[in-house]
Automatic annotation (TrEMBL):
Gene3D superfamilies listed in its UniProt record: Vaccinia Virus protein VP39
Protein name (database record): Ribosomal protein L11 methyltransferase
UniProt xrefs under PANTHER family: ELECTRON TRANSFER FLAVOPROTEIN BETA SUBUNIT LYSINE METHYLTRANSFERASE
A GO CC term attached to the entry: cytosol
Ribosomal protein is among the record's keywords: yes
EC number(s) per entry: 2.1.1.-
Its biological purpose: Methylates ribosomal protein L11.
UniProt lineage: Bacteria, Pseudomonadati, Pseudomonadota, Betaproteobacteria, Burkholderiales
Classification via HAMAP family: Methyltr_PrmA
Record Pfam families: PrmA
Keyword Methyltransferase: yes
EC category name: transferase
Catalytic reaction equation(s): L-lysyl-[protein] + 3 S-adenosyl-L-methionine = N(6),N(6),N(6)-trimethyl-L-lysyl-[protein] + 3 S-adenosyl-L-homocysteine + 3 H(+)
Biological-process GO terms, alphabetical: methylation
Amino acid sequence: MSTLFELALICPQEQVETVSDALMELGGLSVTVEDADADSPDEQALFGEPGMPAPRAGWQRSIVKTLFEQEAAATETLTTLLAQPFAQDVHVQGLVPVDEQDWVRLTQSQFAPVPITDSFWIVPSWHEAPAQARTVMRLDPGLAFGTGTHPTTRMCLRWLARQGDLAGRRVLDYGCGSGILAIAAGLLGARDLTGVDIDPAAVTATDYNAQTNGVVVRVGLPELAVGAYDMVLANILATPLKLLAPLLCAHLKPGAPLILAGLLERQVQELQATYAPWVELHVADQEEGWVLLAGVR
Ligand SMILES: C[S@@+](CC[C@H](N)C(=O)[O-])C[C@H]1O[C@@H](n2cnc3c(N)ncnc32)[C@H](O)[C@@H]1O
């Protein structure tokens, strides 16, 4: 088992991004940022919309932790970093050896199986599937959004699970991220699946995740979506969803459901009004301030 070295620095919010970038450029293997005031009266929450970065790069005072292969590399990096003008208010918290395996285990332990229903679970590859799971999606955290832990994704998955057998359905997942919604539709019986995204990393991730789950998804950039579908799911954000309204509705067969997620309670009326010429959207689910809208063409 090899040993890594973890350098922990206390850093003010304004410098977190610059310091993190510098640490990676100077040879760090990975950088994580934690709240230096976590579990204290000074703790502050950071919230970002799905698929978007948090509004700030760090907390009021952050602990920036960087892993190095060698202790000498860590001390050399530290000396160079502290000599930079932007690092004036950066303080060293510690430099400690960590077992590589412990570190991997710690990271993995943060991603446990996620229940969508009693029998439908999202399970990371390093976990056994729970005994009650009848439908299991194998999915590891990666570069693209969608591991089943965000309320918007969970609500879409629950909605899919409520539809029963999707055999014979042609499904479009618009803004597919990790491909989680298209793959779920496939595991629930649909056989003609298309996933599209503007982010090439999402296209790669969807392709990989679909293969891992033995599901065939046609995946690519948005122009890959052609014709009419029996079901269209789009978990994006309110603003792109408004712009996409005519396009998404044009992909619906008569009588086909449209499922929209990624919007907050206060955005519901605006979205309903935008889609009104094509689809009467109703609130199908809500979780932690996020709303799922559904309607039939
Ligand atoms: C919140 S993630 C949803 C991922 C996944 N479908 C889920 O439910 O977890 C939104 C995805 O939409 C993609 N996206 C954003 N704007 C888009 C657009 N105009 N057209 C297609 N995809 C878009 C983003 O790149 C991102 O992967």
